[in-house]
């Protein structure tokens, strides 16, 4: 026994060594290929300053720069001390997330290139100390500004503070950077959603950004709340409004600063990198997939023929990295805007998301679904509201009643209230359609080497939507709902049970409804008796033709 165990241990150690050597060989081959990359060479020995590094896109940006540009000197990450945690603790929390697993395993030394900078977008000079400003000034040549509040229902004061004043404070800091070669600002394609077609240009602002910032300083919350709807006009929320103002502010204030603007549409889970399907929040379609997969979301107000302009997260990230390279090396005379959108070259409709999503959710069901996922998108608002009552609130009130009777906390009604508030913020985007002109990313691709196009891919024409939606569903299952892949067989068995429970429930409800009608209507009873008599008569004839006797 000892001999066998020792032999197995030796084999295991050998396999481990072989796997380790294979990984090293793969990394070396990967690095040799990247030696032919202009972009990788550009970032060598450069220092980069990033705001919003702890956000969804920020994490992917940091990981991509470390993994594909290992020669980068330093990544300075603006971080706000939060909940009693200092910036060192927050940095540790950042690099311990799933997105950095491969880097921690294969190249842990690269983590030493991350340097946290204590700061706050809501403070003068971003709250950065004088010594840190000097350090940034002496070293940083590339700045990525992605920090923003992305809440659609954010109060105007908070949105202005973060998205508008925060951008102004960043501009003031950037002016002090002596070695600056490129500033890449992350906006949103929906900043100008009051128009049907959005070109790659900075539009006139809906208001004077400087005057608005002054007004916010002296107006109280209640007064601002009262005039918010009038201020934002045709825009659906304060997020898109303040993002439009920020773009104009940059155009006004960044004379002489090498600036480019990247406007992504609806940013969704990763297609391939850093991990297929990786996502860390319930925003946008992710919440819809999770809710529908669990059987909670049964209806959505949505125009199924309209284009859903979603974009996997690594596409805008790769574009940002390439845009910084192009801005620094080609030195364009104007501010180039890049609409990072899929609908212009590779459109996907909400109806296709519904169909492909249902296929994926039935193929890879979530664990312990509460109901069989068979809801649907409704173009008609009245039908949607009826379904909300029938399939969301009636079952929720009934189950909460049973929960209270059994001494358990009632939570479903509260859960649906929260879900409907979130969905109401999305309704504008699921019932409207835009044409985002996206030519500048394609032109940039043409200026990149074949190796750069491979490593820093952002050609939306290559996205296979059915495959991506399946990856998205699997990613939501794994990273949001924390369902282990090993639970799939049990989840499929449970899904089958829920299917039959749904079918039996439908038949039972139909019979109960018909019984109630028959018991109160003489006409309904006559119709029922006539139908039953005809059915028996038909069965007799069929059986007689087959030579089988049926007795009364």
UniProtKB/TrEMBL annotation:
* Entry EC no(s): 1.2.1.84
What is catalyzed by this enzyme? a long-chain fatty acyl-CoA + 2 NADPH + 2 H(+) = a long-chain primary fatty alcohol + 2 NADP(+) + CoA
Pfam families for the chain: NAD_binding_4, Sterile
Q: Which residues does the UniProt record annotate as the domain Fatty acyl-CoA reductase C-terminal? A: 391-483
The UniProt record lists the Thioester reductase (TE) domain at 50-320
Q: Which UniProt keywords apply?
A: Lipid biosynthesis, Lipid metabolism, NADP, Oxidoreductase
A single GO cellular-component term from the record reads:
peroxisome
Question: What are this entry's molecular-function GO terms?
Answer: alcohol-forming long-chain fatty acyl-CoA reductase activity; alcohol-forming very long-chain fatty acyl-CoA reductase activity
- Domain of life of the organism in this record? Eukaryota
Gene Ontology terms: biological process: long-chain fatty-acyl-CoA metabolic process
> What's this protein's function?
Catalyzes the reduction of fatty acyl-CoA to fatty alcohols.
The family annotation for this protein states: Belongs to the fatty acyl-CoA reductase family.
Annotated protein name in UniProt: Fatty acyl-CoA reductase
């Amino acid at each position: 026994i000892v001999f066998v165990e020792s032999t197995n241990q030796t084999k295991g150690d050998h396999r481990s060594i072989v796997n380790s050597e294979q990984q090293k060989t793969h990394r070396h081959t990967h690095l040799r290929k990247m030696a032919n990359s202009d972009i990788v060479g550009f970032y060598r020995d450069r220092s980069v300053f990033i705001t919003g590094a702890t956000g969804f896109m920020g994490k992917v940006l940091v990981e991509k720069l470390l993994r594909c540009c290992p020669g980068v000197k330093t990544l300075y990450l603006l971080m706000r001390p939060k909940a009693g945690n200092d910036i060192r603790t927050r940095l540790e929390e950042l690099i311990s997330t799933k997105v950095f697993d491969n880097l921690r395993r294969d190249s842990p030394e690269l983590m030493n290139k991350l340097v946290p900078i204590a700061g706050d977008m809501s403070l003068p000079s971003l709250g950065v100390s004088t010594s840190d400003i000097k350090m940034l000034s002496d070293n940083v040549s590339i700045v990525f500004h992605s920090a923003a509040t992305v809440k659609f229902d954010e109060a105007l004061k908070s949105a202005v503070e973060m998205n508008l004043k925060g951008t102004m404070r960043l501009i003031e800091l950037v002016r002090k950077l002596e070695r600056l070669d490129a500033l890449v600002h992350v906006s949103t394609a929906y900043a100008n959603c009051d128009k049907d077609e959005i070109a790659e240009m900075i539009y006139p602002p809906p208001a004077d950004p400087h005057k608005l910032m002054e007004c916010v300083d002296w107006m109280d919350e209640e007064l601002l709340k009262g005039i918010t709807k009038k201020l934002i006009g045709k825009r659906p929320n304060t997020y898109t409004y303040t993002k439009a103002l920020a773009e104009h502010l940059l155009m006004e204030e960044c004379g002489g600063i090498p600036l480019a603007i990247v406007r992504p549409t609806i940013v969704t889970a990763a297609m391939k990198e850093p991990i297929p399907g990786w996502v860390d929040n319930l925003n946008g379609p992710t919440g819809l997939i999770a809710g529908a997969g669990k059987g909670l979301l049964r209806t959505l107000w949505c125009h199924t023929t309209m284009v859903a302009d979603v974009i996997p997260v690594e596409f805008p990230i790769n574009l940002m990295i390439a845009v910084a390279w192009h801005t620094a090396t080609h030195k364009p005379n104007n501010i180039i805007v890049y609409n990072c959108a899929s609908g212009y070259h590779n459109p996907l409709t909400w109806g296709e998301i519904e169909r492909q999503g249902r296929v994926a959710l039935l193929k890879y069901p979530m664990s312990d679904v509460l109901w069989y996922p068979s809801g649907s998108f409704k173009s008609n608002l009245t039908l949607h509201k009826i379904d909300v009552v029938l399939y969301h609130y009636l079952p929720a009130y009934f189950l909460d009643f049973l929960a209270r009777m059994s001494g358990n906390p009632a939570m479903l009604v509260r859960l649906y209230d929260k879900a409907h508030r979130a969905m109401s913020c999305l309704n504008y985007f699921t019932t409207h359609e835009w044409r985002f002109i996206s030519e500048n990313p394609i032109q940039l691709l043409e200026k990149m080497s074949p190796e750069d196009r491979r490593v820093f891919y952002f050609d939306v024409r290559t996205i296979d939507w059915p495959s991506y939606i399946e990856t998205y569903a699997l990613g939501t299952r794994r990273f949001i709902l924390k369902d282990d892949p090993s639970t799939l067989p049990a989840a499929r068995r449970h899904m089958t049970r829920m299917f039959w429970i749904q079918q039996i429930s439908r038949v039972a409800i139909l019979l109960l409804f018909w019984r109630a009608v028959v018991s109160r209507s003489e006409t309904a009873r006559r119709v029922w008796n006539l139908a039953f008599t005809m059915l028996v008569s038909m069965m007799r004839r069929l059986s007689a033709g087959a030579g089988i006797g049926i007795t009364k």
